[in-house]
Amino acid sequence: MLTPMLGEMSGSIHVGLAGLGSAIGVGLVGMKASEAVGRNPGAFGKVIVLAVLGMALSEAIVFYAIFLVH
User: Most buried one in 25, 27, 44, 51, CB count within 10 A?
Assistant: First the structure.
């Protein structure tokens, strides 16, 4: 019953799901980075570099979904 409905849907549901996953990933990375800096303010430089790298890799998933499938 669900399969015919998914077959009739036009659009890019995979891009939406990738965007949702990316948003959750960026939120988790930001949350844990701010928690780490709160626990150890001296490690701010190392934490921010890793957090930005993690966010960039998480956001790249959306671009993979957009460009590799279409």
Answer: 51
Range of the domain at 66: 41-70
More confident: 36 or 10: 36
Give domain status of residue 5, yes or no: no
pTM score of the predicted model? 0.75
Distance, in Å, from the CA atom of 32 to the CA atom of 57, rounded to the nearest integer, reads 16
What are 45's two structure tokens?
Answer: 């430089």
String of DSSP letters for 1-51:
-HHHHHHH--S-HHHHHHHHHHHHHHHHHHHHHHHHHHH-GGGHHHHHHHH
